[in-house]
């Protein structure tokens, strides 16, 4: 129905304004220091409208984080088996399409859970892929250490690029991270073959 669609568009527009406003504020302020009044004044939305959608600033932040984590999870699950350059291109393009929110979530002014959750997603998929490709019968502690080292290194590169306000060319960052990814996989595969040969 036209009336319902118009209301839905209005709600989406309001939520987008609030989310972008919070993202801008969090570039320079900690979440705990941002008030609802400050945010609503910034985006020119009545406070009653804010409370129609969110309990407080933390609720808004958590919903934003949840949405991005869900969307990235879907992208990771669908594309992790792609060659590194293609996989990271998809991830980086998503970040570019959501620059303000991703800048906020990767920044040190956040609550810290976003990068932890993203790390868990990447680790789970990396572990699953390596076990499948190289037919590991069990997940050893050594493999867990390698996966942690690999994933946190990749995320550190992404974080650095985001925190630098995307100044370094995206294609070059993708080449860097994809090259590291390929070399790490080669190292793990080679080590596995060497270990198997000495058994």
The Rg value, from CA coordinates, equals 20 Å
Shape, per Cα inertia axes? elongated
Got a strand count? 0
Question: What is the CA–CA distance across the termini?
Answer: 69 Å
Largest sheet: none
Instruction: Return the string of H and E elements.
Output: HHHHHHHHH
Helix content: over 70%
- The proportion of strand residues reads under 5%
Instruction: Indicate the structural class.
Output: mainly alpha
Notes on the structure:
The structure is a single chain. By secondary structure, the protein is mostly helical. It has 9 helices and no strands. It has helices spanning 2-26, 36-43, 47-53, 57-79, 84-97, 99-106, 113-134, 141-163, 170-197. Helix 8 (141-163) runs antiparallel to helix 9 (170-197). It is elongated and about 65 Å long.
Describe the structure in brief:
With 199 residues, the protein is mainly alpha-helical. The chain has nine helices and no strands.
């Amino acid at each position: 129905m036209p009336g319902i669609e118009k209301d839905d568009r209005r709600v989406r527009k309001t939520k987008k304004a609030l989310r972008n406003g919070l993202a801008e504020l969090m570039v320079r302020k900690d979440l705990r220091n941002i008030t609802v009044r400050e945010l609503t004044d910034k985006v020119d939305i009545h406070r009653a409208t804010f409370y129609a959608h969110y309990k407080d600033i933390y609720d808004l932040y958590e919903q934003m984080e949840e949405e991005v984590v869900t969307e990235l999870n879907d992208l990771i699950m669908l594309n992790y088996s792609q060659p590194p350059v293609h996989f990271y291109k998809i991830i980086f393009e998503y970040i570019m399409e959501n620059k303000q929110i991703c800048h906020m979530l990767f920044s040190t002014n956040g609550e810290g859970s976003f990068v932890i959750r993203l790390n868990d997603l990447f680790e789970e998929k990396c572990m699953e892929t390596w076990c499948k490709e190289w037919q590991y019968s069990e997940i050893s502690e050594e493999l867990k250490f390698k996966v942690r080292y690999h994933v946190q290194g990749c995320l550190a590169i992404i974080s650095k690029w985001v925190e630098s306000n995307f100044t370094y060319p995206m294609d070059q960052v993708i080449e860097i991270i994809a090259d590291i990814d390929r070399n790490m996989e080669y190292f793990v595969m080679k080590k596995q073959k060497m270990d198997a040969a000495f058994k």
